[in-house]
């Protein structure tokens, strides 16, 4: 009889937990991506510039940020930021100039739509680039 009661108690606890967790379908999924307003935090623009500044291989000039259009955050062991933005060639030469959001201004039309994932672990003062992919404006993005 004790085994049946234990099984019933476990079943009840599991069902209750499922109801509590799934009660509100608009709740945030733990570990999932949450959409943010791009203009709500200046850090998002700074992180987009950071991602762009890391793109040096095979290039002669830096691109620069034109418009940050989408931001998503994901809480993990730190925070992941998925940033969607447009870029244009800048007036900064790789190997000669240090990339700076203030110094590296766009000098041509928008040349790409990019998605970058940047991670940040504040308690270790760590920032890194997980992925960066761009496509020419008006085309599908490739990794």
From TrEMBL:
GO CC aspect terms: cytoplasm; extracellular space; vesicle
Keyword annotations: Protease inhibitor, Secreted, Signal, Thiol protease inhibitor
InterPro entries (alphabetical): Cystatin_dom (IPR000010), Cystatin_sf (IPR046350)
Domain Cystatin: 28-135
GO molecular function, one term: cysteine-type endopeptidase inhibitor activity
Signal peptide annotation: 1-18
A Pfam family: Cystatin
Gene3D superfamilies according to UniProt: 3.10.450.10
Subcellular location: Secreted
Primary subcellular site in the record, as a coarse category: secreted
Similarity comment: family membership: Belongs to the cystatin family.
Protein name in UniProt: Cystatin domain-containing protein
Annotated organism of origin: Amblyomma americanum (Lone star tick)
């Amino acid at each position: 009889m004790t085994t049946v009661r234990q099984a019933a108690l476990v079943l009840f606890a599991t069902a209750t937990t499922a109801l509590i967790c799934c009660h509100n379908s608009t709740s945030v999924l733990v570990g999932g991506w949450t959409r943010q307003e791009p203009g709500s935090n200046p850090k998002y623009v700074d992180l987009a510039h950071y991602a762009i500044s890391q793109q040096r291989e095979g290039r002669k000039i830096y691109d620069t940020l034109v418009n940050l259009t989408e931001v998503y955050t994901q809480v993990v062991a730190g925070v992941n930021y998925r940033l969607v933005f447009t870029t244009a060639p800048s007036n900064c030469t790789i190997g000669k100039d240090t990339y700076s959001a203030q110094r590296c201004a766009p000098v041509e039309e928008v040349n790409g739509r990019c998605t970058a994932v940047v991670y940040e672990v504040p308690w270790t003062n760590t920032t890194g680039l997980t992925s960066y992919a761009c496509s020419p404006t008006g085309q599908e993005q490739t990794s």
